[in-house]
Amino acid sequence: MARLQASLLAAVAVTIAAVAMLATPAYGASYTVGNPGGSWDTQTNLNDWASSIDFRPGDELVFNYDASVHDVVEVTREGYLSCSPASPLAAALRSGADTVQLNATGTRYFICGVQGHCAAGMKLEVKVSDANCTTTLPPPAPPSPPGAPGAPGGIRICSGGPPTIIMSPGVISYGNGASLGSSASLSSLIVTMASLLLVGLIIV
Ligand SMILES: [Cu+2]
């Protein structure tokens, strides 16, 4: 009985570990604005900071700041250039620890809405791109008709991000909603692993 309980515990532990591993996205870095050495403030050269990072769809920005002094307003390019929070793209963030998801490619603009702070340098332009991604191993296959089985996979490598294994073209990629397919295949993998563990338990 004790042996059965130990096996059961081991099976549960392995399953939980597998689920935790698979549930972690293969991409999506978190960048705290201004770090290291700076912050969301008027002293940090925020565009120097931003230009040192290769932002990818799926990454996130974290704004840590003194909420009694600053806020974060996402604005249009015009609002950014003129330092005007008058036409924000979203409600101003004021918690002092705000996270912004960078879900798609494109350029995002953030300013501090407090009078004079944007003009003093509290403005941030973030370019989100996946343009430098390359797919290798095997070499790109010729286009196949939609739904064709057995399409070869590969490894997608983007500068600044970890490699992403592509099961078949388009199943896992940055940003474009294809994650449904990969979630489904991960779920079935988890179920399969759990089933195998249970079978092993019964045999023991
Ligand atoms: Cu401010």
- Structural class call reads alpha+beta
> How much helix, percentage-wise, in residues?
25-40%
Please, what is the average pLDDT? 73
Globular, elongated, flat, extended or rod-shaped: what is the shape?
A: globular
Q: Tell me which ligands are bound.
A: copper (II) ion
Give the strand content.
15-25%
The number of E-state strands comes to 9
Write down the oligomeric state. Answer: single chain
Main sheet makeup: 3 strands, mixed
Number of helices: 4
Number of domains: 2
The end-to-end span amounts to 12 Å
Annotated CATH architecture of the largest domain: Sandwich
The CATH superfamily of the largest domain turns out to be Cupredoxins -  blue copper proteins
Order of helices and strands: HEHEEHEEEEEEH
CATH topology of the largest domain: Immunoglobulin-like
Biggest sheet, spatial arrangement of strands: 1-2-4
Protein name: Phytocyanin domain-containing protein
Pfam family, one: Cu_bind_like
Keywords: Glycoprotein, Membrane, Metal-binding, Signal, Transmembrane, Transmembrane helix
Organism: Digitaria exilis
Molecular structure report:
Strand 8 and strand 9 form a beta hairpin. The protein has helices at residues 2-23, 46-51, 77-82, 179-203, and strands at 30-32, 59-64, 73-75, 97-102, 106-111, 123-128, 134-136, 154-157, 164-166. The chain has two domains: 2-26 and 132-142 and 151-203, no CATH class; 30-128, Cupredoxins -  blue copper proteins (Immunoglobulin-like), CATH 2.60.40.420. The longest helix is centred in the last third of the chain and has 25 residues, at 179-203. Helix 1 (2-23) packs antiparallel against helix 4 (179-203). The chain has four helices and nine strands. By secondary structure, it is of the alpha+beta class. Copper (II) ion is lined by residues 69-70, 112, 114, 117, 122.
